[in-house]
Amino acid sequence: MQGADGVELAPRDWIAGLDKGLAVLESFDEQHSRMTVSQVSVRCGLTRTAARRYLLTLLYKGYMGSDGKLFWLTPRVLRLGHCYLESARLPRIVQPFLQRVTAGTNEIAFLSVMDGDDVVYIARNGSTRAMNTGIVLGSRVQAQVTAAGLVMLSLRDPEHIERWLQTHPLKAYTSFSVQSMDALRTELTIIRQRGWAVIEQQLELGYRGVAVPLMDHRGDLVGALNVTMPMGHESADFAVQRVLPVLQETARALRNLL
Fold this sequence. Notes:
The chain is α+β, with helices and mostly antiparallel strands. Helix content is about 45%, strand content about 20%. Strand 1 (about 65) and strand 2 form a beta hairpin.
């Protein structure tokens, strides 16, 4: 059996109940924030009886709320993500370096990783700015509308990129969000060749992002470093000249520690 990120698992080691319980949790999203037992059973491919038992168990453990008919996630679910942020080695190592990036650029600095098709922000440094997209620790955003996502996606195998392009719907966050697969394919090729990405107003109007890949000492991709800034009166070329060297130097310094 092959799971996320190509992890192999012997059938004898697979716990079906845990797999189904996690599927129930993951079935809730923006479009399905409150669901009945029947709706959960359909989304998870479970019988109604099984879905009800999983939901009631999660309700008992505090991960669900219910009014007797509808079920919804509770803030307790955030404990799972918080456990990652507290225990993961990568954010702890990178955090002091993000402070260096902020000091050198006067911009908000982020560390992000890819989880499936999404970018997940796992560390940040810098003053809080009001952004409609609400990028905080744990935020998930489609890869193609972020500089970090584009730079990480560009370094995947060409076959993987092509499959991604053919199967991934492109969501428009702004009128500038990329909607053409051909344009995205070309942009990914350019980013792969030059080793960094810059985007403007793809995720939120008036904001620009610049990102570089973060590699470990073996040369494997582990994430991306990026800064987010208001566009103001600064051109994209000048912004890149100002922040890219800081990002690249920081990525090189981290490589020997990862």
